[in-house]
Amino acid sequence: ERVTRRDKNGVQVKIIGRTPAKDGHNQDSAWVPNNVEGSQQDADKVETTEEYDEIVLCVLTDTAARLLKPTITTIEKKVLGSAKFANDITVTHTDIEYMKKHYENFYNKEQAVTELNGVNMQDRVDFAKEKFKPMYMIKMYPQDLTKLEMCFDCTNYQSQFPPEVPFENHVFQTIFLNKERDGHLWSIDEIDESKIIRKDWWHQLCHSFTHYLFVVPWMWLLNGKRHTRYAASWTMVNAHEVACISGISAAVDLGADYPEDLERDSFALLSFRLYYLLTYGRWYRRKATKTTKEGEGKSWATGVYGSTYNGPGVNAEEERRLWKREVEKGRSLEGF
User: Would the pLDDT of 254 be above 90?
Assistant: First the structure.
């Protein structure tokens, strides 16, 4: 794909079609340069031309720079080229021996801390004795303690699983970071190949100080210019919330209304306003709540400055509600 024209008449884009993968995970096409996956998908596809009034690039900065290359400006090249990335791989597997070797999967009284910074932690220790279920873990490499490996126990983490599953039936995702820099430290080869469900490469933003000097402060010079906007987490901080706000911001800047319920949510509105100001250079003025703040969304923000969310999707009373609903629909099991 290439953006071949951006002028007063709109945007011209050269498109190469993709064949959707059955599992929803489309690997890079054969047309993507420096493809870390080595994928050669859709090498036979033919390029077509499409015309648009505006475009929103929901891609990483290096991909955006590549797409815009025929029409890229100096400032676009400088800002987009200042972000740094690493190639990581996620291995989804069921190798409990690997997990036992490298992680603390069970309560260990030798690791338990009953007091922290003068605060008594005995209640937490007592709770862990019976219900220790780690979801997110890290392992520092003995050869270099400044580098680490990440891992999720998906069975503990994902609410689709039953609350009690034998450890030997757990599913894990181990994430090995920065192949070019840390690949020599990886223990990926220790995972039993027969226990691997899938491997997924991903291109991850590096939170270098340069990102906050040369990318984030200058996005307002790019967004909305030459019929182009950017929606992705790299536009500020690499987080899901930022990705969502960036998409809403692009829509609002194109003329869409900001959702009324979110405008009544004081913390959501504050977050959106600050993001929109920083990345578009404009302050969002209230519309739906200009005369009254009553209505859906008003009670969603609780806690200090509305920083605790208590709206749709929050479930603080019932354990594994999603799993129960999946069982009722026949899409999950009572036990594994």
Answer: yes
Beta bridge partners of 29: 41
When mean pLDDT is compared across 110-124, 185-199, 211-225, 294-308, the lowest value belongs to 294-308
Helix (H), strand (E), coil (C) string for the chain: CEEEEEECCEEEEEEECCCCCCCCCCCCECCCCCCCCCCCECCCCCEEEEEECCEEECCCHHHHHHHHHHHCCHHHHHHHCCCCEEEEEEEEECCHHHHHHHCCCCCCCCCCCCEECCEECHHHHHHHHHHCCCCEEEEEECCEEEEEEEEEEHHHHCCCCCCCCCHHHCCEEEEECCHHHHHHHCCHHHCCHHHEEEEEEEEEECCCCCHHHHCHHHHHHCCCECCEEECCHHHCCCCHHHHHHHHHHHHHHCCCCCCHHHHHCHHHHHHHHHHHHHHHCCCCCCCCCCCCCCCCCCCCEECHHHCEECCCCCCCCCCCHHHHHHHHCCCCCCCC
- For the segment 177-188, what is each residue's pLDDT rounded down to a tens digit? 999 999 999 999
Whole-angstrom distance, CA of residue 94 vs CA of residue 101? 14
Whole-structure pTM value:
0.85
Burial environment of residue 20 by CB neighbours within 10 A (0 to 12, 13 to 18, 19 or more)? exposed
